[in-house]
Design brief:
Rossmann fold
Length: 244
């Protein structure tokens, strides 16, 4: 798929991986529909988009809320009367050991990460089917592949996204719609910056490339998946070799 002038809708795109994905597609000349729960995009992020001459719109909306996400999907489609690429990036964590995890802790993460992805994708997928074209990219995690201590809720949500991705790929293929997932490993973020040096060393010891990933490296993978018209139903791991 040629990305120039393509309409790309990215949920959870005010910072981190979502913002990096937005900038990567902006550099390719795509038109962006961005989303978050705050009133507007951060000033520094807007300045970067403006410098690139990017055409973009920002829609406030919470993908965990059924009414909000329905309105969000409708509003996003209405801007250009199409969405060429949907990237489901919005997600949260609420880490606790299984023995201390409440049902509400589990439900909160599932509702945002998995149910929210489903609710945002379904109405847009229906419209893509009618147009016989579209690309969907879901952000999963290596935790969804092998689990992780203290992240039963997060692992379940991301494993669910991988299964959802494969099902959408099968259902959409006959109408020219592709769906793939990205499973990042340890990526530099606000959260990783707060880790102690001891914890960082423990993490790095498990990564053959001996460094954390950068958001832009996940973003480049999203661009690759959008451009390659013969890839669907795949989960691309971006983890520096952590799952080898």
């Amino acid at each position: 798929m040629e990305l120039t002038d393509k309409v790309v809708f990215i949920s959870g795109s005010t910072r981190g991986i979502g913002a990096a994905i937005a900038l990567e597609f902006a550099k390719s000349g795509s038109r962006l529909i961005l989303n978050g729960r705050q009133d507007d995009l951060p000033k520094a992020f807007k300045e970067k988009l403006d410098l690139l001459g990017t055409e973009y719109h920002y829609l406030k909306g919470d993908i965990a809320n059924e009414e909000s996400v329905s309105e969000l999907a409708a509003a996003a489609w209405q801007i250009y009367e199409k969405i060429d690429i949907l990237i489901n990036n919005a997600g949260i964590t609420n880490d606790k050991l299984m023995m201390g995890m409440k049902t509400s802790d589990f439900d909160q993460v599932i509702n945002v990460n998995l149910r929210g992805t489903f609710m945002l994708t379904q109405p847009i997928f229906k419209k893509m089917l009618k147009k016989r074209a579209g690309c969907i990219i879901n952000l999963a995690s290596i935790v969804g592949l092998h689990g992780n201590t203290g992240q039963a809720n997060y692992a379940a949500s991301k494993a669910g996204i991988i299964g959802l991705t494969k099902s959408i790929a099968q259902e959409g293929a006959h109408r020219g719609i592709r769906c793939n997932a990205i499973a990042p490993g340890m990526i530099t973020s606000d959260m990783t910056e707060k880790l102690s040096e001891r914890v960082k060393e423990q993490i790095l010891s498990r990564i053959p490339l001996n460094r954390l990933g950068q958001p832009k490296e996940v973003a480049k993978t999203a661009k690759f998946l959008a451009e390659n018209d013969y890839l669907t139903g795949q989960t691309i791991v971006v983890d520096g070799g952590m799952t080898i």
